[in-house]
Known about the structure:
With 97 residues, the chain is mainly alpha-helical. Helix content is 96%, strand content 0%. It contains one helix and no strands. The protein has one helix spanning 4-96. The longest helix has 93 residues, at 4-96. The chain is rod-shaped. The protein starts with a helix and ends with a helix. The model has no long low-confidence stretch (mean pLDDT 89).
Amino acid sequence: MPSEKPDVAMMTLVVGMFISLLICICTMGYFAYKITSVDYRYDIIREEYTRKIEMQNRDYELRYNRLFEQMSTFQFTTDKRMHLLEEQLQQYRSEKK
């Protein structure tokens, strides 16, 4: 009978180590899964923000082009008016002489 007690203690230690090893493996697996899922979420968020920035850049480019077009039109009409006013002024000057 005295030899059974060390065997029971040894078996208890082996079972305890086995259980603690399973807990460690499960913990490592959980953190490994969590890290890969966070990386995946990070990639999705990065792609979403990249898409939003590209859309905003396109929107600003369209606005810039429209504004440039309006300024060109305004510049043309202003130049034309100035030219017509100069012609009219020259006509008035020539009539006075």
